Amino acid sequence: MAQNQYLYAVARIRSRELRLLNASFMEQLVTAPDAAACMRLLRDKGWDGGEPEDSDGMLAEEQKKTWGLMKELVKDMSVFDVFLYVNDYHNLKAAIKECKSKNAFSNIYLSQGTIPVADIRKAVEENDLSSLPEGMRNSAQEAMKALLHTGDGQLCDMIIDRAALEAVRQAGEQSGNEFLKLYGELTVAAADIKIAVRAARTKKTRAFLEKALVECGTLNLKALADAALESEEAVAAYLEKTDYEDGAQELRKSPSAFERWCDNLLIRRIRPQLHNPFGIGPLAAYILARDSEIKSVRIILAGKRNGLPETAIRERVRETYV
User: Fold this and answer.
1) I need a surface site. Which of 37, 77, 109, 309 has the fewest CB within 10 A?
2) If pLDDT is split at 50, 70 and 90, which confidence band does 106 have?
């Protein structure tokens, strides 16, 4: 896309940024009496889709709006593939498990991806993976073989999750765009840290860690694995020596606090794109901002429906982009 076309696209995004949910509105949702009141507030903001109480329909519609806007602004949507690979690999996992169970579970698939769900299901059902990209094809073969011989669904998930992270990292590095490279790096690093924490908690072996962790530039995987084999506190202590030292204290608080910190880190790192008038960065940041606010709304609605106190919900809500 030519520079002047990017300028037009960024100008359109600037107007859409005014509609993003800010911290003040998120607080309104948190303090609303119930989920129905939250839904009314959201509809007043222009969020719609589904029946009046159908929050899933509303959130799915908001995701469609984001990607519909991008299709209007960008001719070559492949520049955003790095954000969609996780959905592709989720759908691969779903197809393998659906095929294994011999039952249809169409509601477990995600609609936003780079490969049509029907193509992934067909490739798995017919055991002909040649139509899939090489990285996905190789991980699918390995995962299907593992599931066939061991019946271990967690091993199947680990193989595919690792391949998804490798695809995200590689796409970021090959994009030639510093923003997308940053996204790939942060996504993989956050996933590696979460894997190490879970491994420490469940006493996983070094062999597991070596298969699950994915190379990235900001973490020493050997040191991270050594820490995970020792304790969760050792993982936190290792983080204090890295670019992610602020996450150590959040990890010590609770798993949910650490998850929130990971998401907030990405939002903080993309926020400078609010002042960037050029390139694909502001558009990519808008996609991530929308994903983050949809996640926060989902957390608030779930908290309201489960009767969580406001303080517990507030602790889980992500920082806003604007």
Assistant:
1) 309
2) low
